[in-house]
Design brief:
Elements lengths: L1 E11 L5 E13 L9 E8 L3 E3 L2 E5 L2 E5 L2 E5 L2 E8 L10 E4 L2 E3 L15 E5 L6 E5 L5 E4 L5 E14 L2 E15 L9 E7 L3 E11 L2 E3 L4 E8 L2 E8 L8 E10 L14 E5 L15 E3 L18
Antiparallel strand pairs: 1-2, 2-9, 2-13, 3-8, 3-11, 4-10, 5-6, 5-9, 7-8, 11-12, 14-15, 15-21, 16-20, 16-22, 17-18, 17-21, 19-20, 22-23
């Protein structure tokens, strides 16, 4: 067995003080000195809290096929089994397998402790002998102080004339960064992005931490244009405590009274990012970006859905 694709998986201890990192081998290559007849049985067992069962994929020559394994669950472990319906090995080429397991999004339960084994078992047709392989590489623990944020906010609208239509382009006028813990969020950058064809400037008017106004000079603000996008970046000079909310209020200034877009409208969005710190990893909260799920200017209803992703 050769590993063709490895992905990193990570979880935390119950107290979030330790991170456990391992490589998961999700695509493998199988070969054999002697020919193996069609019908080899493949069984994959894994922790159902960390991985979800899915389809298996068989790569042979230039073809790719999906296989639907039989899945059972017991004692917190899932078991996916299927058969390889073609021969391989000997003078035949090896085959590739995409295994029927996918890492789950763990938030908010990311503190599962050390990884449980993920085992691949192979049984040739007509044989009682099995070959077993560990699908997780060595597990590396390290001390950490993880943190996470939820990004949300509010929108204002700009009337846009696009060819024969009038649309409402929505851009954030409030961005809220809530620290969901378990440790303080490090200094980072709040980035608000809008369509530079429609918005002349994004002015940060004020900011507050837990409702208490803070001096905007404590935010290092810069504006830049990237292609058709206008961005304003506000870097914090302070950490956000656990459970606290940083709010940034923005005043978008449109192009003239009736801005016009000739070729559609880009998303408007807001996000919070920091530099990578292995000792202070960011939790996968799933809400690191605030974006209009209605694709901004493409929906005209005043009660159009809003959300985060």
């Amino acid at each position: 067995m050769n590993h063709l694709l490895a992905q990193t998986v990570e979880t935390f201890s119950q107290d979030f003080a330790t991170a456990y990192t391992a490589d998961w081998f999700g695509v493998i290559e199988l070969g054999a000195v002697a020919k193996v007849a069609a019908g080899m049985r493949v069984v994959v067992e894994f922790d159902e809290r960390v991985f979800a069962p899915g389809k298996a994929t068989l790569f042979t020559g230039g073809s790719v096929r999906s296989l639907s394994p039989a899945v059972t669950s017991s004692g917190g472990r899932s078991r996916a089994s299927f058969e390889i319906d073609r021969s391989f090995g000997g003078e035949s080429e090896s085959i590739g397998l995409g295994l029927p397991m996918t890492p789950r999004p763990l938030y908010p339960v990311e503190n599962l402790g050390e990884f449980q084994p993920a085992i691949l078992t192979l049984t040739a047709p007509g044989s009682d002998r099995t070959e077993s392989f560990d699908l997780l590489g060595s597990v590396t623990p390290r001390p950490v102080a993880p943190w996470g944020v939820d990004v949300s906010g509010a929108w204002t609208t700009i009337e846009v004339h696009e060819q024969a239509k009038v649309r409402s382009y929505r851009v954030p006028n409030l961005v809220r960064i809530v620290n969901v813990g378990p440790c303080p969020a490090p200094t980072g950058t709040v980035t608000i992005t809008a369509d530079a064809n429609l918005v002349e400037r994004l002015v940060i008017e004020s900011a507050a931490l837990d409702g208490v106004p803070i001096d905007v000079s404590r935010l290092q603000v810069q504006s830049l244009r990237v292609s058709t996008e206008l961005r304003v970046e506000a870097r914090t000079s302070f950490e956000v405590p656990v459970g606290s909310a940083l709010e940034v209020f923005i005043a978008p200034e449109p192009h003239g009274e009736n801005p016009t877009a000739s070729e559609g409208i880009v998303f408007a969005r807001a996000e919070f990012n920091t530099s990578v710190d292995d000792a202070r990893p960011r939790r996968s909260t799933g809400r690191s970006t605030f974006i209009d799920v209605t694709e901004s200017g493409t929906v005209e209803q005043s009660d159009a859905a809003k959300g985060t992703v």
